Amino acid sequence: MQEQYRTVARAGVHETEINRSRFICALAPAATEQEAQDFVARVRREHPTATHNCFAYVIGADAAVQRANDDGEPGGTAGVPMLQMLLRREVRYVAAVVTRYYGGVKLGAGGLIRAYGGVVGEALDAVGTHTRQRFRLATVTVDHQRAGKLENDLRATGRAVRGVRYAEAVTIEVGLPGADVDAFRAWLADATAGTARLELGGEAYGDT
What we know:
Blueprint: E1 4-8, E2 12-18, E3 21-29, H1 33-46, E4 52-59, E5 65-69, H2 79-88, E6 94-101, H3 108-127, E7 129-142, H4 144-156, E8 160-166, E9 170-176, H5 181-191, E10 197-207
Helix pairs in contact: 2-3
C-alpha cells in the first residue's frame, strides 16, 4: 500500500474562457469507479447542450484505475491531458469533468491539450487538496481510572484517536503510522504502568 496520497478537499467547479470557448471543470472526490462514473453522468445531465463533456478519473491510492474520455474532441487532446494533470499532481480518488461550450475559434491540437489540462490544474488549485496517510489501526484497552488521562496524552502527542468506547473497561481506537508501532508500544507501557492492552488491527488511510 502507498504510504500516502493526495485527494481533493471537496467537490467544486472552476471556469475559464479561452478564445471565446468556455471551459468548466467540475471536480469531486470518488471512492470507487462507480462513484466517478455517476459523477460524470450527473455533470453531463447538467450540461446537455455543451459541445463536449470530457472526463478523467483516478481511483486507488496506487492509481490502479485510470480512465479518460475525449467525448468527440480529437483523440488525445482532452481526456488524456486531464488525466495527466491529475497524475502529475499525484491526486487520487478523484473525478474531473471538463465541459466545453465552443466559442467559434478553433484551438488546434496543442491549444486543446493546454486548455483541458490547464483548467484541471486551475480547478485543483481553486478547490484545494489534502493528504491522507496510511495508518495501522490499533485498539488500546485500559481501566476507567487511567482512560481520561491516556486519551488526553494521546491527543497531546499528535496520535490519531479514531474512537473511544466505554464498557467494563475503556477501549480507545488509534491510528498509527506503521513505523511508530514499536515506539508506541513502549510509550503506552510507560504511560499506563504496563496496565493497558494493545491489539493491532488492519490498515486504513486517514487525514494528516
